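Lab notebook: predicted structure, single chain.

Context: the supervisor wants predicted structures on file for every construct in the current expression panel, including those that have not yet been purified. This is the next one on the list. No modifications to the sequence; it matches the entry in the shared construct table.
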Amino acid sequence: MQIETTRDVFKLAQVFTISRGSRTEAKVLTVRIADGGVQGWGECVPYARYGETMESVEAEIMGLPEEFDRVSLMDLLPAGAARNAVDCALWDFEAKQAGKRVWQLAGLSKPGPEITAYTLSLDTPSKMQAQAAKHSFRPLLKIKLGTPDDMARLEAVRAGAPEATIIVDANEGWSPEVYTDLAPHLLRLGVALVEQPLPAGQDDALIDMQRPVPVCADESCHDRASLAGLRGKYDVINIKLDKTGGLTEALKLRDAAVAEGYGVMVGCMVGSSLAMAPATLVAQGAMIVDLDGPLLLAEDRDTPLTFDSLGVHPPQATLWG
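Prediction complete. Output recorded below exactly as produced.
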């Protein structure tokens, strides 16, 4: 089995800002696995928040033994970006080898389109209102917040898109006091979900707090091992393949979370259609789907995912799976 990696860069359609910083491009690592004339591929986004760099993730992948499969991969690499790209490449490889789609190999029902959120970048209230108005035709908008001045931003977005469902992502940027102050206003403004209001590791305060709007764990939830630490704090978990370490664990995490009574959100890093393709399988029937990465790009993979009024569609076989 041959493995190769390439570093790819996709320009963003506009500057994208969250509470931790801004970017103008998406830097991804593409992994290709080939054997016997068959090639599968996958994509990951190394994330500094989790101590990952392009170099460290590449080193993990290139340090794999010559022979392994999806089962042994779970022990060879930890949950994270490196295992995600390799796991998804293996799924694509196996599907092409078998002449089937990944959803068939995984024993899933045939996937369909799912309405996805569209993310508004963190900006001044007036600019966020203009963004919201421009995208008010979309049924689900996600707002990046996480600053002391978020109330004005939230009011502005609601004014710009009065009919859209709104979800909020604080990216660990609030204190317990800020969240407590904002919570009733989130309810008043029709916010459907709040993502990671407090920093991971400092979220025990949520146990004693009123949660008038469902609270979703993002940075606090990576894989099934995370679930035990979320009890009493969160109502929903955000599944991202770059956190779970691939489709294999993501599907298991989804089933385990549902069994424990959590709602499921399926999210993404800012990557190309190749990164979103496996996640569309996990997203089937999810409470919230946030797979808008390709919508934020100025350029994408060949045979990109289709986005229309029905939502994000599963990939064509020529892209993945």
